[in-house]
Amino acid sequence: MSEKKTSEMSFEEAMRELESVVSQLESGDVELEASIKLYERGAELKKRCEQKLKEAEEKVAAITLDESGQPKGTTPVEGL
Amino acid sequence: MTDLIDDDPGTGGNAPEFTVSEISGAVKRMIEGEFSHVRVRGEVGRVSRPRSGHIYLDLKDERSVLSGVIWKGVAARLATQPEEGLEVIAVGRLTTFPGQSKYQIVIEDIRPAGVGALMAMLEKRKKMLEAEGLFDPARKKPLPYLPEVIGVVTSPSGAVIRDILHRLRDRFPRKVLIWPVAVQGEKCASEVARAIEGFNRLTPGGSLPRPDLLIVARGGGSLEDLWGFNEEIVARAAAASEIPLISAVGHETDTTLIDFVADRRAPTPTAAAELAVPVRMELLAWVDNQGARLSRSLSQGVTLRQQRLRDLSRALPRPEAIVETQNQRLDYASERLRNALVAVAQRKRLRLIEASASLRPSALQGFLRDKRQRVGQIADSMALGVKRGLRNGQRDLDRLGGRLVPGRIARETQIRARDLDRLSRRLSDVGKGQVSGWRDRIDGLERLRQTLGYTETLRRGYAVVRGNGEVVTTREAAAGARDLEIEFADGKLAATGIAGPVRTRRKDEPPEQGSLF
Known about the structure:
- The complex is a heterodimer of chains A (80) and B (517).
- Chain A contains two helices and two strands, in the order ααββ.
- By secondary structure, chain A is α+β, with helices and mostly antiparallel strands.
- Chain A has one domain: Orthogonal Bundle (Helix Hairpins), CATH 1.10.287.
- Chain B is flat, with a radius of gyration of 77 Å.
- Chain B is of the alpha/beta class.
- Chain B folds into four domains: 2-113, CATH 2.40.50.140; 135-278, Response regulator (Rossmann fold), CATH 3.40.50.2300; 361-452; 453-517, no CATH class.
- Chains A and B meet through helix 1, helix 2, strand 1 and strand 2 of A and helix 5, strand 7, helix 6 and helix 10 of B.
């Protein structure tokens, strides 16, 4: 298993690995030491998923363009 | 005046008279003045494209035909190339061609007119892009599961962006960047294409963060309204986008060119938002569920192991029972070991004592004395043997010396010396005879040589004349010579300056004589 830091993982990556950790642990043929490690990994992944789900913040901005049509900044968009 | 009237019998009297060129010029001025900028709608008839680069075509309707020309420079600029059967609106000016009594339209712009024309052109573009492989399913990129930033290319005002934001808010609020564009009209295509390219040029995580996902959206409308999304530049920009792209243009029944090259097509802007993000609440529930399964399976694993441990430990015998017998064996063996050691030591000591008893100095000395005596005996007998050997050798030498007699050798020597003398004498005699023979022959030959030589001839009264060291045989040679010299038998005489026929004649003679010999 690739031990990527969970803090660097996208929601999808964390989700995929959490799924695989749970099914490994549920299969029951993992040694005790390994199963404890798996559990800890799973808990971290779950935390990462929850964190990414908590970051559900809406922020809408419109790009402002200069005369040649190149982006030069943004203005917040409200009330839509 | 009467002449004029007579010559002009049929027509009205005072109508002015034109030449052909004058009337042609007048028509030209009139037409070009009246129709300097016209829009003409019609179907493209026969189109010819000579190598000059100009395009000649006919515009027609049910009853009439109008010739048209598109000059090379204009033809290159055209967004739509005219083709036979296409309904078009041409913009340009009318002009005449006096040489052939013709008129035509010089077209400055030409574009399709009407839905049928547009559909036909759309089909053609579709075929071209499809042939290039831009619709290939293998080209389509998967959408990110949960995009962080979503870029929306659409009009900033209107129902479309509102629908998208609402649906996003319901499902999973995200960061949204709107790139405002005109969604219909002239500028639509170029702005949409530039927006797609512009989003792709942003850097991830910058002040303007590059989106993970693009939505190109527009509400429903007529085919003409949506036409910008059928333009080739839009389709190519969408195909080239490295960011996954969802197209949501018009209603479900409207299909535009961008839908074929987009990674996903959404029937409506709302549906695009649904494709873009998962539902947050569902994910939260899923994560909770995973967490519960995680804990349950771990504790289940531990419980199962505890149970097995209990079962196994029940089957284990008491550890003391395994050790007791062995303990006893150890005690017994260690006891025997001590006894055995003592016994072994005693036995060894006894043998040592026995062995050392026979070991005394007097015995060694006796042994040494015997050996020394034996060495003395051997030395005595060795000396006797050597003396005897010497004596025998002397005796043999004496006997051999007596047999050596000198008289026999001397006799042998005398006989050999006599033989040698005899042989030497014979050799000397033979040698002398040989030598005197050779001398007689030499004397004979010498005498012969002297009679043959010219010196003998000189003795008989002849002489040899030489000039400049060479023998002179003719008078002519003698007259030319500077130093004449005459050789007689008894010597030579210089004869410089002497000239006489007698002498020269005599000088000639010796060679003649010589040749007789």
